[in-house]
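Hi Y.,

Following your request, here is the sequence exactly as I used it, all 212 residues.
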Amino acid sequence: MKLKNRTAGLAALALTLSLGLAACGDDDSDTNANSSETSSSATPTPSPSEDDSMSASADTAFGPACASLPTEGDGSVTTMAEQPVATAAAGNPLLKTLVAAIKQADLVDTLNNAESLTVFAPTDEAFAKIPEKDLNALLADKAALTKVLTHHVVGAAVGPDKVGGKHETLNGDNVTVKGSGEEWTVDGAAVLCGNVSTANAKVYVIDTVLMP
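Below is the corresponding structure, written out as tokens. Let me know if you'd prefer a different format.
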């Protein structure tokens, strides 16, 4: 009888332990599931914000002539962004005549040391539209050359979101920019490569020399 009672007691104890362990297992599963759900809801999948897209767009150069720029090194969009504007222009293959004119007018330091500018930069082909005799006379007249060059410069860096409208130049007169998207004109001159960033300026390469 004692043996039977002891055997029955051991069986009852084993059954109790088995049920207890099963209950603990269920609790652990519930806890893990709840923890997983909490973690998923606490960390939503990030999505790009409007500000991020606007920022990327605001820093992107546009226009057909941008394809003529080197992909790396001097004159590339990346390198120009690290240099002050006159130095950056010196590496740009579209702006050799403009750079020579800037040097002739002693404006390199003025442009490089300015805090913030927008430069409407005529290409070599734009200068080639001017009769050679007139161009040589302009390059030889420092005062007249300075007026023409500063007529292409605005005293603030203006991106595509604000470039439209009338802007006062460093020459003390105005230029008017019209257009939208990636198609703009500056007093009728077409923008060929716009929104090129340098360390202290925005550059818009244009197809015509603007006259004050």
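The chain has two domains: 1-46, 60-206.

Thanks again,
Q.
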